[in-house]
């Protein structure tokens, strides 16, 4: 009996050990998301109206392609009308949607005065909205001490107050319909302090504060909130990354050899998170994924070991640039 029990314990330990090694080598998202993604069920967005901000490039662009293939009707927002038009045309090519199933609504997310008008424009066209994907955003790099307060304002206007204000407008419609789903593209920087990006990190942490509250307030309303936290992903984000001075661009060119996730993969995982209404998901390669787990479940070990002994400037910069 004792020998049988010991064998059973060894087996359990072996399975846990093998599982951990596989996780360290292959996992590119948190285990809940990977579990749902591995079910490989069709994600059905037929006739659902999905509004994506930041749809003119990067993650938002690929989300548009995945969602339109899954049957969604799309509202595509961004600033660059030429890019937005090209994304709209590609959506029609990759799916069998009708021309009127794609609506382009270009606007600056930080121009709060137009939010009522753009919501009305979407409702006039489609009559309803099922999903609002708050994805538009900009990044920032500079030492904490070197950041002008104007840059903090810029980051918060685009990354936080824009999505928050737009969501409030759409929420009225969701509450009337007694259903809706708000998706927010946060970041690793929304969960961990990403060094040398404090304005960006502050803005992404703020999103969690606002949208965690919204989720709690909506538990009885059939309105869902999904916070998506990607690590480094190929997109245009580094090309327009700002510094600590207003109007200054961060001097860094993304390379195809960078260790970043393919935009398609990030979008694919994100669609699963949306389809299964996950509250939060983490999408990134190791070792950042492991850090998420440490910071969430063993915060003292994360701060005393990982932050103190592993986070030096050179390593952090390399990790953030996918090098
Ligand atoms: N790529 C990454 O490594 C990474 C990692 C974690 C989180 N994220 C987050 O993912 C989201 C999408 O970024 P991305 O990586 O796909 O970068 P991206 O290729 O630069 O896309 C950013 C999108 O946001 C739009 N946008 C920027 N400023 C705007 C403004 N003031 N008003 C309206 N739209 C605006 C852009 O529109 P225009 O092009 O038309 O100006 C573009 O469509 C962001 O929230 C970002 O923080 C990215």
From TrEMBL:
InterPro entries: NAD(P)-bd_dom_sf, Sc_DH/Rdtase_CS, SDR_fam, SDR_family_member_7
Similarity remark: Belongs to the short-chain dehydrogenases/reductases (SDR) family.
Name of this protein: Dehydrogenase/reductase SDR family member 7 like protein
Keyword Membrane tagged: yes
Parts of the chain that traverse the membrane: 12-36
Record key words, sorted: Membrane, Oxidoreductase, Transmembrane, Transmembrane helix
PROSITE patterns per record: ADH_SHORT
Pfam families assigned to the protein according to its UniProt record, in alphabetical order: adh_short
Keyword Oxidoreductase tagged: yes
Gene Ontology MF, one: oxidoreductase activity
């Amino acid at each position: 009996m004792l020998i049988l029990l010991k064998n059973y314990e060894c087996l359990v330990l072996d399975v846990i050990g093998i599982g951990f090694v596989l996780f360290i080598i292959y996992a590119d998202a948190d285990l809940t998301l990977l579990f749902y993604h591995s079910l490989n069920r069709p994600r059905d967005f037929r006739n659902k109206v999905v509004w994506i901000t930041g749809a003119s490039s990067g993650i938002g662009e690929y989300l548009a392609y995945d969602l339109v293939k899954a049957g969604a009707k799309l509202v595509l927002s961004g600033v660059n009308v030429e890019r937005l038009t090209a994304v709209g045309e590609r959506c029609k090519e990759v799916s069998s949607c009708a021309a009127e199933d794609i609506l382009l609504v270009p606007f600056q997310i930080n121009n709060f005065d137009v939010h009522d008008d753009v919501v009305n424009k979407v409702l006039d066209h489609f009559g309803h909205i099922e999903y609002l994907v708050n994805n538009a955003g900009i990044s920032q790099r500079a030492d904490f001490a070197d950041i002008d307060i104007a840059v903090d304002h810029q980051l918060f206007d685009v990354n936080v107050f824009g999505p928050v204000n737009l969501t409030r407008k759409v929420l009225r419609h969701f509450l009337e319909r007694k259903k809706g789903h708000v998706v927010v593209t946060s970041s690793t920087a929304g969960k961990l302090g990403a060094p040398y990006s404090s304005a960006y990190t502050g803005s992404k942490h703020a999103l969690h504060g606002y949208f965690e509250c919204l989720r709690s307030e909506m538990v009885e309303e059939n309105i869902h909130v999904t916070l998506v936290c990607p690590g480094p992903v190929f997109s245009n984000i580094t090309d327009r990354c700002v510094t600590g001075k207003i109007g200054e661009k961060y001097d860094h060119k993304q390379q195809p050899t960078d260790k970043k996730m393919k935009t398609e993969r990030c979008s694919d995982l994100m669609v699963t998170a949306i389809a299964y209404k996950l509250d939060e998901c983490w999408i990134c390669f190791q070792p950042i994924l492991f850090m998420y787990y440490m910071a969430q479940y063993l915060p003292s070990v994360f701060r005393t070991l990982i932050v103190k002994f592993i986070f030096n400037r050179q390593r952090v910069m390399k990790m953030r640039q996918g090098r």
